[in-house]
Amino acid sequence: MDTIARQLDAARHQFKTTYSRQGMEANIVHIGFGAFHRGHQAVYNDLTNEITGNRWGIFELNLFGDAELVDALNAQQGLFSVVETSASAINSRLVRTVTGALHTPKSGIQAAIEKLTEPQVKIVSLTITEKGYCTDPRSRTLDLSHPLIKHDLADPEHPRSALGLIVEALRIRRQQGLPRLVYCRAITFRKTVI
């Protein structure tokens, strides 16, 4: 039985896209699969693949939040659409860059660590709320009394926070002799110390 992605590759001229998902790997792991990421970073990655012929896929991780969104994305084999409206036009784009997704409360944190330590992964990106960084709002430094940070310091191999997950993945990558990861996050006007 054909997958949705294979059927789409066969009919890609109908969707005004020039690249095939065949052979696409997750070179980017993104934490926080929300509307901002879907409407911006995933679209830009999709456009870059189309223009350059690259096959950089994004694997999505949600540490908290909506399990149904992740389930729907996986059921659609990573495909979703973005609609842009203006006073003069309505444009839709089928975004094809997502290779899969995990909801860590369902899949377990170990699955997320394993994904971040795959050798082809080059970038970890985040679009999480300021609360997700577990910083002290006044000092803008890591809040060592935050429950997630306290847990991660006591049990670093089983992190619960986004930062703990990244630190553990980097530790394992270093131990295995894998390349470093480039870190990319949503820019804020207020400085956040990481």
Automatic annotation (TrEMBL):
EC number in record: 1.1.1.57, 1.1.1.67
Name of a matching Pfam family: Mannitol_dh
Keyword Oxidoreductase appears in the UniProt entry: yes
Residue intervals of the Mannitol dehydrogenase N-terminal domain: 27-179
InterPro entries linked: Mannitol_DH/Oxidoreductase, Mannitol_DH_N, NAD(P)-bd_dom_sf
Keywords for this protein: Oxidoreductase
Domain of life: Bacteria
GO MF, one annotated term: fructuronate reductase activity
UniProt keyword annotation of Oxidoreductase present: yes
PANTHER family recorded: MANNITOL DEHYDROGENASE 2-RELATED, MANNITOL DEHYDROGENASE DSF1-RELATED
Protein name according to UniProt: D-mannonate oxidoreductase
Source organism per UniProt: Salmonella enterica
Taxonomic lineage: Bacteria, Pseudomonadati, Pseudomonadota, Gammaproteobacteria, Enterobacterales
Gene from which this protein is expressed: mtlK_1
